[in-house]
Design goal:
alpha/beta, C-N_Hydrolase, hydrolase activity, Nitrilase/N-carbamoyl-D-aminoacid amidohydrolase, hydrolase, Hydrolase, 13 strands, C-N_Hydrolase_sf, 8 helices, single chain, globular
C-alpha cells in the first residue's frame, strides 16, 4: 500500500476519428507516465463524437474486443498507466435484443465505463443514470445499467467509478464510499448551459465532502461540453483545476490527508441511514 498516489485527468475534444482519439490518449498517457501518475482519467464517450449528435456516437460504437478498446489496452501496456473512461458498445454486447429499435432505424448502445490496466480490462460499469434532462434524451440511444458501480485497487487505494449524470445522484457516490472507496472517479461529457458550470463545481465538491473521498472528475472539452476537469480533496477543496482548453491536470493524493479528514469529519461512521441500493434490480 502506497501512502501517496499520483493521478492525472486529461480533458480533450473527442474527434470523429477513433484512430485520432487513440493518438491523443496515447500522448496524454505518456505524459502522465513521465510525471509518475499511476492513473489517468479520461472523458466520457471516447470512441468518436460529432458535437451533440448522439446518433453519430451510437453509429460508431464498437465491441469491447474491437480496435478502439484493443488500442486502449495497448496504450496501458506501453505506458504502465491505468486508464479510466467510457466507450459506447453495441447493445448486443450485453446480450440484449434491440430488434425493436432496428425496425425504427435507430441503434441502441451501452455506455460502458472501462478500467484498463497492463493490457487488460479489469472492470466495467454500465451507466446507471441516463441524461434525460435539460432537453436532452440519452435514453433514445443508450440503455441503462442495473448494477452499482465497482471499485478497483490502485496501489492499495480503493477507487470507485461514476459516469457524468451519476454525479447528480448522491446515492451513487455514497454506495462507493460505504464499500470502502478512497477515491471517486467521474468520467463525463458535461453539457454547457445556464448554471451548468456551477452545478459541475458544486456537485463534484459535494460528493467529495459528504463522503470524505478524493474526487477526480474529467469532462470532455468542446463547443458542446465544458471541460473544467478537477481534482478535489476529502473536504471538498480543489487540489487541481483545468480551464476550458485541452490539457492534463495532476495531483499527488496523500493517505494522511484522507485519514485526517475522516477523523475530523466522521460522517461515514456517524450516518444513520442504510447503505444505498438500487430501487429496481431488473432492466
Amino acid at each position: 500500500m502506497n501512502d501517496m498516489l499520483t493521478v492525472a485527468a486529461a480533458q480533450f475534444t473527442v474527434t470523429r476519428d477513433p484512430s485520432m482519439n487513440l493518438t491523443l490518449i496515447r500522448e496524454y498517457a505518456l505524459r502522465a507516465s513521465e510525471e509518475g501518475a499511476r492513473l489517468l482519467v479520461l472523458p466520457e464517450g471516447l470512441i468518436a463524437r460529432d458535437g451533440g449528435d448522439d446518433a453519430f456516437v451510437a453509429a460508431h460504437a464498437q465491441p469491447l474486443d474491437g480496435p478502439f478498446v484493443t488500442g486502449l489496452r495497448r496504450i496501458s501496456m506501453e505506458t504502465g498507466v491505468m486508464l479510466m473512461g467510457t466507450v459506447h458498445v453495441p447493445e448486443h454486447e450485453d446480450g440484449r435484443d434491440d430488434a425493436d429499435l432496428a425496425c425504427e432505424g435507430r441503434r441502441r448502445v451501452a455506455n460502458i465505463f472501462l478500467v484498463v490496466r497492463d493490457g487488460r480490462i479489469v472492470a466495467t460499469y454500465r451507466k446507471l443514470h441516463l441524461y434525460d434532462a435539460f432537453s436532452e434524451r440519452e435514453s433514445d440511444t443508450v440503455t441503462s445499467g442495473d448494477a452499482l458501480p465497482p471499485l478497483v485497487d490502485v496501489d492499495g487505494w480503493r477507487v470507485g467509478v461514476m459516469t457524468c449524470y451519476d454525479v447528480r445522484f448522491p446515492e451513487t457516490a455514497r454506495s462507493l464510499a460505504v464499500r470502502g472507496a478512497d477515491i471517486i472517479v467521474v468520467s463525463a461529457a458535461w453539457v454547457r448551459g445556464a448554471l451548468k458550470e456551477r452545478h459541475w463545481r458544486l456537485m463534484t465538491a459535494a460528493r467529495a465532502l459528504e463522503n470524505t473521498c478524493y474526487v477526480v472528475a474529467c469532462s470532455e472539452v468542446s463547443n458542446r461540453n465544458i471541460g473544467l476537469s478537477r481534482i478535489l480533496d476529502p473536504l471538498g477543496e480543489t487540489v487541481a483545476n483545468a480551464g476550458a482548453r485541452p490539457g492534463v491536470i495532476m495531483a499527488s493524493l496523500d493517505r494522511d490527508v484522507l485519514r485526517s479528514a475522516r477523523e475530523t469529519l466522521p460522517v461515514l461512521t456517524n450516518r444513520r441511514f442504510a447503505d444505498p441500493c438500487l430501487a429496481v434490480e431488473s432492466r
